[in-house]
Amino acid sequence: MNTNLRPDSMTRISTPELAEAFIAEKIAEVRAQVGDKKVLLALSGGVDSSVVAALLLKAIGKQLICVHVNHGLMRKNESEAVIELFRNQLDANLIYIDATDRFLNLLANVADPERKRKIIGEEFINVFADEARKLDGVSFLAQGTIYPDILESVKQGEGKKAVKSHHNVGGLPDDLAEKFQLVEPLKFLFKDEVRVVGRTLGLPSSMVDRQPFPGPGLGVRCLGAITRDRLHALREADAILREEFDNSGLAKTVWQYFIAIPDIKSVGVKDESRYEGWPAIIRAVNTKDAMTATIEEIPYAVLHKITNRIVTEVAGINRVLYDLTPKPTGTIEWE
Ligand code: XMP
């Protein structure tokens, strides 16, 4: 039997009651698996790793050590929210590593999207591995692997050419891979089931219902070679977009929405003087599986408000554009 395939008999977890039963079963399994040993978890703050963290906290409490690596490419206040929820509210063991300089120094002058992804993925492993080597007595590594990740890796094994390399975390270095046994309590769940489990565990909607965010983060939205000033402008403009999507209710109906900023400047005018700035590009799409995507209609009043706020509040941006391209031909991300 292939232990990586979801058993046919497994019920779809669609209700809090089914989630309760799943949680109880996993708590017992994890306790039996790890005994009194420690478990390490890379906690990005995405839905999957957050749900694993909440589940393991219930199962083994302080035996869980969460490591949150800030690669400097997070959205505004994202790392702060992870610390607030897991360390302050849920009392988790959480190690916070601000690795912004490590990442941005490596990425300086690198314009090729796949090279950027590779650098971010590899450096993530390096930072995490450096931390893991400092910790004593850890025998297990927990991961927020979910069923589509398993299906995707099976597909890649069949030799299909990927459009983009979607790896967040590749393999760990040999010394660590040999040291750790994996704990993957969500590996047979689809995303909607992970959300039901997360909600049942008491995680807030801001964590459980959040839109997908790529592992390389704002790194693939600050197009071309990343500079700190353009990255800052991107983070601020993105925060405004998200705030206005929350205010207008669009956040509930649009699957993924964000700002991308290309590495070009155009001439503009501000306070009666020439003002060269970057354009902020709005992307807002709906999709079922991210393989194809349609464009979401944003009411003009909302577009106007977002545009006004971005060009007045964010230094360095002098235009706002709305990308109307479905997938195909445009991928959801610009890089
Ligand atoms: P594309 O741009 O390929 O994106 O249409 C499809 C979905 O995947 C997300 N995406 C990524 N996720 N690492 C990730 O974890 C990546 O490198 C990456 N690139 C794209 C994208 O945000 C969309 O939801």
User: What are the secondary-structure elements, in order, as H or E?
Assistant: HEHEHEHHEHHEHHHEEEEEHE
Low-confidence stretches: none
Radius of gyration: 21 Å
Number of strands: 11
What summary fits the major beta sheet? 5 strands, parallel
CATH architecture tag of the largest domain: 3-Layer(aba) Sandwich
Percentage of residues in DSSP E strands: 15-25%
Question: What is the name of the CATH topology of the largest domain?
Answer: Rossmann fold
Overall morphology = globular
Describe this structure in words.
The chain folds into two domains: 16-208, HUPs (Rossmann fold); 221-322, GMP Synthetase, Chain A, domain 3 (2-Layer Sandwich), CATH 3.30.300. It is 42% helix and 16% strand. It has eleven helices and eleven strands. The chain has helices at 16-34, 47-60, 78-89, 100-107, 113-134, 147-157, 174-179, 191-200, 205-208, 228-248, 300-313, and strands at 38-42, 64-70, 93-98, 138-142, 181-183, 256-260, 269-270, 273-274, 278-286, 294-295, 317-322. Helix 2 links the parallel strand 1 (38-42) and strand 2. The chain is globular and about 70 Å long. The relative contact order is 0.13. The protein binds xanthosine-5'-monophosphate (XMP). Xanthosine-5'-monophosphate (XMP) binds next to loops. The site of xanthosine-5'-monophosphate has 16 residues, from loops.
